[in-house]
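Field reference: "sequence" (input) and "structure" (output). Example, protein-serine/threonine phosphatase:
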Amino acid sequence: MVSDTDCLEHAAASTTAVDKSHPAPPAPSNIVISYRNHDSLSSGGGISILSGSRNGKISYGYSSFKGKRASMEDFFEAKISEVDGQMVAFFGVFDGHGGSQTAEYLRNNLFKNLSSHPDFIKDTKTAIVEAFKQTDVDYLNEEKGHQRDAGSTASTAVLLGDRILVANVGDSRVVASRAGLAVPLSIDHKPDRSDERQRIEQAGGFVLWAGTWRVGGVLAVSRAFGDKFLRPYVVADPEIQEEDIEGVDFLIVASDGLWNVISNNEAVSLVQNITDAEAASKALIKEAYSRGSSDNITCVVVRFDPS
């Protein structure tokens, strides 16, 4: 069971959820970060204690910016909950295309479905695969108001005990920093990736160049939630990578509005000396925009303090 005892909502351009001038008490059993004005720059964050074999503090911050796009299609999620007696942190970035509805649906439902899976604690990887599949099926079965060409990527990081489990669908991305070095924890699902192209062609689809490589000449990612008209070529099957928390300085979870103009190494280098997670996420957003990113930009930074 997931304990839902607290909810913090931030207006656009809000500050962090914790007053950092005072020692932070242990977080309540559930923290939900959201924003009201989806088209505006928003930022925020918080601090929590997670317990594994080593007690550790995490701080996290987010920033999300419409940028040069006419509308905002990015959503994100940051939750810390108690699941079956264990503290679990979930961070996700969802980059919609063809509209924002798929990304919003993922923000509202993906972690709820994952944390309620009966095997979430004892077999987390299987739970992730099945929860992603169920969320996709549920979304596709809800016809009302959903466009057939609407879809979304999903890059998520689950912190459970001493582990980081990253699940990725699409071209948003998760990168870790170890001793100042960038460690990719996901690989973009692009149609020209050799294994992805082979999978698509074996399913009867095709990939061609239309300004960039696209599935069916339409979609520039090879995996996504939604996109009903491109099934079975575009799927929501996640690739999962597990990492030990020990030795990880911080995580960056971001949409391709960031990664299109900033490399993994550059992102880590830009914020490795910024100890405030919200300030780090803002710095990355600002740098991506200054480099000419033409997309929505959303970034979540999670910093680890094992002491």
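The first helix runs from residue 101 to 115.
The first strand starts at residue 8 and ends at 10.
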